[in-house]
Amino acid sequence: MEKVLTRNIADDPVPTDMAAYEANGGYQGLKKAMAGMSSADCLKVISDSNLRGRGGAGFPTGMKWSFVPMGEKCTPGHKYLICNADEMEPGTFKDRLLMEYDPHQLIEGMILSAYTIEADIAYVFIRGEYLVAIQRLRDAIAECYEKGYLGDNILGSGYKLDMYVHPSAGRYICGEETALINALEGKRANPRAKPPFPQVSGLWGRPTIVNNVETLCNISHIVDKGADWFMSLGRGEDAGTKMFGASGKVKNPGCWELPMGTPIREILEDHAGGMQDGLELKGFLPGGGSTDFLTPDHLDLAMDYNVIGKAGSRMGTGTMIILDDQTCPVGMTLNLIKFFAHESCGFCTPCREGLPWTREVLKKIEMGNGVPEDIDTLIHQTKYIGAMGNTHCALAPGAMEPLQSALKYFRDDFDRHISGGCCPYHKGTGA
Amino acid sequence: MPTIFVDGQELEVKNGENILEAFLNAGLDLPYFCWHPAMGSIGSCRQCAVLQYQNEEDTVGKIVMGCMTPVADGARFSLNAEKASEFRGAIVESLMLNHPHDCPVCGEGGECHLQDMTVMVGHRDRRYEGPKNTHRNQYLGPLINHEMNRCITCYRCVRYYRDYAGGTDLSAQASHDHTYFGRHQEGTLQSEFSGNLVEVCPTGVFTDKPLLKQYSRKWDLQTAPSICTGCAVGCNISPGERYGKIKRIQNRYNHEVNGYFLCDRGRFGSGYINSDERLNFVALRDARKQVEGSDKNADGEGTFSAIGTQQGLECGGAWIKDALKSGKVAAIGSPRASLESNFLLRELVGRENFTLGFSASEETVIKRIVNILRSMSATNPSIKEMESADAILILGEDVTNTAPRVALGLRQSVRNKALELADQARLFHWQDAAVRNLAQDQRSPMVIVSASDTRLDDVASELVSLAPDNIAAFGRAVAQIIKGETLSGPLADDDRVKHAAAMLTAAKNPLIISGSSMLHSGIVESALGVAEALQANETKTMLSYCLPEANSFGLALLEDVADEGSLEGDLSIEHLAEKAVDIDTLIILENDLHRRMSTEQYQKLVGGASNIIALDVLENATLDAADLVFPSASYAESEGTLISSEGRAQRHYPVFNPADDRMASWEWLLALAKTVKHQTLSTLKTFDEVVEACAQSDELFAGLSAVAPDHGYRNHGLKVPRQTHRYSGRTAMRADISVHEPQQPIDEESPLAFSMEGLSRDEPAALKSFYWSPGWNSNQAVQKFQDEVSGPLHGGSNGVRLFDPREQSHQTQSKSVVADDPGHDLEKGKWQLIPIHKVHGSDELSVRTSEICELAGEPFVALGKVVAEKLGVRQGDGVLVSSDDSSLALEVRLLNRVAKNCVGFSVGFEKTFSLQQGELVSLQKDENWQRSKPDMIASDSGGRNV
C-alpha cells in the first residue's frame, strides 16, 4: 500500500524538518500551484478527488469550499482558513501524530487550501495540551517564512498568506467549528446558530473555512498528484487513505494509515493484533466517543462513511474504541456521558441539563440502585436530546449515540445491573 | 403577506418575522425564555419548539425552534402536536432540575415567567432524583439582589447587560450546568441601566432589592399610569403601592419612548416618596413672627407649628389677597411640578408676577431650546425614532447622565450599521447572535464632542474633548462645512470637523443631540446650525435636546417664549431677588431655590420677601426659609401633565391617596384661588377643568385635553381599577387599626378607581398600568396588549406631541452668535469649571432615596491625568478648588479625557452648590485630606466608572 499521510513517519519516527520534507517531495504541490494553477483549478481538483472531511462528519471538502464567496462576489476584507487541531474526541489521537512528526505536510496543505479560497490569514487552532506539536508547528512555520512559502509574496506568485498557531484554552466543544471561531475571537466557546455558515460569516464575521488536520494534510498530495490518483487509493467507495486507530484491550493499540474502505476486521486483527488473551470482543465505537456501538456482527464492514452510516453508526474520526466482554458497557457509557456532560458548553437546555441528568441515572444504575423506570428515562433522553435540531449543536446528539446503541445491543447488561442491584462486572472481578 | 398553516388553520403573517413572533402576534401561547422582543433570538433555551412539516403529505414533521425559524409562504407548522408539546414539557422539566422551587420566598413569585411557562407546558411530575447544583450569590450593590440558584441559564441577563446596554461587569462564567451569571468579583453593578435585569430575568435571579426589603406580591400592589420625574425624557412608569408606601417602579411600555426599559434613577429613585422627610401637615412659622413682623432671616429662624388645612388656606389666602391688591405679589414656578400646578400659579398671581423658577443661566438656555424645538424644521425625535439614526453628532452632553434612557436608545442607533450589513448578508434582524458576529465592532458613526468623558465613549467613532466655547465653535464649523462654506480660524485645519461634517452629509437619518447641561447657548445654537444646514441639503434631520427636569419644557412654554429676546434673564429668580424687598407675598412652587442660585442671591430673595408661601414634597432649605408651608403630594399621589423634551405631553395619575393633609400642588393652588375668590380660577372645580382652562389659555396647549381620557371616561361603563382582581387583605391590612374595612377612597378626578372594582380590559394606553392576561402573570404579558411584537399598545401610544414640527414648513434661523472663539488662553494656573452630571447624585429628589444616595457617593472634582500628575494627586486624594472668595476641598476622581484647561465638578451635590459652571478656579493638593478608602491598587485607579 502507498503511504501518503505517513510517508515521512516511520515506525520509529523522528520529526520531519524542512530539509527532510522537501527531500521526500515536499512543497511540490505548492510549487505546482503557484507556478500555474488558479484557485479555481485547485478547487476543481479537490472537488474531483472526492475528498471528504476527516474530522468526523465526512462532508465533501470541495463542496464545503465552494460556498466561499470568491473574487468580486466577496465583500472586501480578510478571509480565513482555520485548521481544527483541537483533537479532543475520546479515543482519538491521529492528528497529533501527523502534526508532531510531519508539520510541513499540514502547513503545505493549509497554504494550498488558503490559496484555493483566497484566504490571507490562516490559524492552526490546536489543543493546548499538544505542547510538542505546537512547538514543531511554530518552528515549521518559521522555516516557511524563511523559504518564502509564507508571507507577502509566496514563491513570487503575488499570493499573500500569514499563518498563526493558536493553542486552545481547552474545551471539547472548541472542536465544533463555530465554537472554535468564537473561542478564537476571545468569546465563550459556544457554537453559533447556522445559518449563516462560516463560509459566509465566520471568524470576525468574514468568510472562513475550518478543516480538520488530516483533511488538510491530504491537500498537497491531491494538488500534486491529481484527483484520479487520490481516488485510486481507496479500497471501497471513498477516496484516499485514512488514519485508523484502535484503543482498548487489544494487543497492539495504535494508529495506522490505511486505504479508505479497509474492512474493520483487518484493522482489528492485522493491525491492532486482535483482542488481548482471554478477552472477547463485545462491541466497539468505530469513530470516537460520539459514535454508536457496533458489534462483532459488523466486523466485515468496510470503513467507508456510507457503509458505517448504513450500519447505524458513523465512521467519525476512524479511531475505534474497543469494548471487551469483561468491561462493563454501562460503566463505559457512564464514563463517556460524564465526559460529554462536563464538556457541554452550557448554551442550550437539552444538552446542558439533559446530559448531567443522564449521567446521574447511569451512575445510579451502575451503582446498583437503578429501577426499571430508569431505562425509560434513558430512552427518553436519547430521543429528547439525541435528535439533531432539538439541540443547538451536535454535541448532545453525539453524546447520545453510544448510549442509544448500548441500550440496543447491551440491554441485558442494563437489566442485570437493575435486577441484581450491583454491577455484574465488578462482582466478577471482586472490585 | 405570507400565509402559514398552524395546525391546519391559515394564518396571515408578516414578512421577515419569525415563527415565535408570528404565533405571539396571532395570540397563540407559545412558551419561550431566551427570546426577548427587544433583543431578538439566539435559540438557547429551545423552549419555543414547534413541529414543522415539509409539505401537506408530511405527517411526521420535525422539531424546529420558533424563534429561529423565519416565516415562509405556505409553510406548515403545528403548535399542538404531541411531539412538540412533549418536547416543550421536557425542556421545562430539565430547566427545573436544579431550580430550588423556592417560589414562596422568591421576589419573583406570582409574576414569574418561569412559573407561567411551567404551567403553560403542563410539566408537573419531577423525575430527576439527583442532587441539585447550588451557587454562591454575589453582592451586586443596593439595587439588585442576586440568587443564582434560581437561574435557568437563558442568557438574557448578559445579552441585555452587555450587548444591549453596553455594560461590562456582568458576564457568563464557567460552563455546562455550572454556568454562572455574575461579576468577576462582588460589587455594585456599574451600569446605569442595571435595574432592567429585574424585568429581563425570566425568574428570580435578579430581583428588586429595595422591593425585597418591604415586599409585596405583584397582585397586592396598587398601580396607576405614571410618568417618571427623574429627568426630562418622560419614560412611562408603573409605580406600585401598598400600605401607603411606594414599593417599586416598573417599566410601563410605551413603544415610542421607553419601550421595555428604564434607567436606574427612574426605577429606584422614588424611595423619597416614603421618606420621613416628607411634609405631612400645613406648617406656619411661629406666631411670634406674625406679631413682630420683621424678626426673621433667611436661615429660617423660629420654629414651625402644624396647623389645619383650612387655617393654612385662610392665612395664605389673606396674604395673597393683600399682595394682589397692593401689586406686591410674586410667584416662582417649578420645572419639576406639573403643568397644571404651574399654570394655576401663573393665573393666580398674573403673568406679570410669575417667574418661571429657572436660574438666569438655565432660563436663557432652556427658553432658547424650547423656542428652537417649537419652530425648527428638523424633527424632535422620540427615542424610537432616534434608534433609526445612522449618524450621530453629540454636542456637549453626557447623554447617559443627563437623559439616560436616550443614551440606551443611542446604543441601539449605532447598531444600524450592523443591521445594514445583515440586510446585505440576508440575515434577519432578529438573528441576534448572527448579526453581532457578522458586524463585530462595526458601528454607525457617532461623534461625541464634549468637555470630558461620557458614558457613550465606548461606542463613539470619534471623541473630541473641548471646552464649552470650543464645543460651540466646533458645531458651527461643522455646519459651515455642510453648507459648503470655507472655514477660517483655528478649526480650519481640524480633520475632526471635516469627519463629522462628512459623516452627517453621508447619512440618511442624521441625529444631532445637544442640551442644556453645559448651560451654554452657543452649543445649543450650534446644534441647530448643523441641523439647519442638513435640512437645507434636503436631508431629513433629527435634532434632540436634553433638558434637565421632568417639566422643564412645559414650564418654559408658560412664558411667552417667542419674545425671548427682550426677556432674556428678566424672569429669572436672580432678577426677582434684586427686587425681593418690594414683595409682600412670594409663593414658591416645588422649587428648592437654594440649588439654583448663589447663596448671596438666595439670601437676598428669601430675606427680602415679607411672606413666603412654599409648597413642596420634601423638606429642603427653601421650605425652611418660608413662613407658610403646604405639603405637596408627590407625582405618585397626584394627577398632572408633564411635557418631555420630545414635546410629548403625558399624564400621571395618583397611585394612591396622599396621607395626612398632603394634597397635589394644583389642589392647594386651586383652594387658595378659591379663598381669595379669584375671578377666573375660583370657578374651576376639577382637574379636568384646570386642564381645559390651560388648554384654552394658549393654542400651544390645545392638545392638552387629548393627552388622556377625562374623569368621565368609562371603560365599557366601568372605571379602570388600580387594584388587581387578586388584590388581597383589604380588611386585614389595617386590622391593627380597626377590624372594620373602610370604604375605599372615591376618585372623582380620574377614570381610575382606588379599588379592585371596574374593568381592566381594552382601556386606552394612557390608563394602562398593569399587564396581566390569563396564563401570563409576568411582565411578559405586555405582548398581549401590543398590536404586534414591540408595536404600539392597543389604542395607540401614550401621550400627545403638543406641536409637531414635522408639519411645519418654516425654518428657524439660528441666531447670530459670536465668531469663532480663539480657544482658551487662561491665566496660568486657572482652570474652567465644567459640570459632571451623574445618574445617581445630580437629581434633586431621587438622591433622597437611600439606595441612590449610597450610589451617589461623595461630591468630587474630576481631573484629567495630566492635571492630576501636575498636582501630585491620585484618585481618592483631596484637592482644594479655589475661586476668588472661597475654597472647597473635594475628592479627586480621574477622567479618561478632559478638555484642555478644564476641570470637572459633580453637579447637584449640596457641597458643590457654591461652584458655578464656567467659573475659573485654581487647584491645589489638599494635604490634610483623609482618604475615604484605603489606597487602591494600581489597576483600579484608571478613572473608569467615576
Question: What does this entry look like structurally?
Answer:
With 431 residues, chain A is of the alpha/beta class. Chain A has three domains: 18-233, NADH-ubiquinone oxidoreductase 51kDa subunit (Rossmann fold); 243-302 and 316-321, Ubiquitin-like (UB roll); 329-429, Up-down Bundle (de novo design (two linked rop proteins)). Chain A is built from 18 helices and eight strands. Chain A has helices spanning 18-23, 28-36, 39-48, 61-66, 94-101, 103-117, 131-147, 177-184, 213-225, 227-233, 264-271, 305-310, 329-343, 349-366, 372-384, 395-409, 411-420, 424-429; strands spanning 80-85, 121-126, 162-167, 208-212, 241-247, 254-259, 281-285, 319-324. In chain A, strand 2, helix 7 and strand 3 form a beta-alpha-beta unit. In chain A, helix 2 (28-36) packs across helix 9. Chain A is globular. By secondary structure, chain B is α/β, with parallel strands linked by helices. Among the domains of chain B are: 3-95, Ubiquitin-like (UB roll) (Roll), CATH 3.10.20.740; 282-357 and 572-708, Rossmann fold (3-Layer(aba) Sandwich), CATH 3.40.50.740; 364-552, Dimethylsulfoxide Reductase, domain 2 (3-Layer(aba) Sandwich), CATH 3.40.228; 831-940, Barwin-like endoglucanases (Beta Barrel). In chain B, the strands form nine sheets. In chain B, strands 15-14-25-24-23-16-17 form a seven-stranded mixed β-sheet. In chain B, strands 31-35-32-34-33-36 form a six-stranded mixed barrel. In chain B, a hairpin with an 8-residue loop joins strand 3 and strand 4 (62-65). In chain B, helix 2 runs antiparallel to helix 3 (113-121), helix 11 runs parallel beside helix 19 and helix 17 (468-482) crosses helix 18. The longest helix of chain B has 18 residues, at 309-326. Chain B is globular and about 90 Å long. The model of chain B is unreliable at 288-300, 816-823 and 938-946 (pLDDT under 50). Classes of the chains: A alpha/beta (431), B alpha/beta (946). The interface between A and B is large, with 40 and 44 residues.
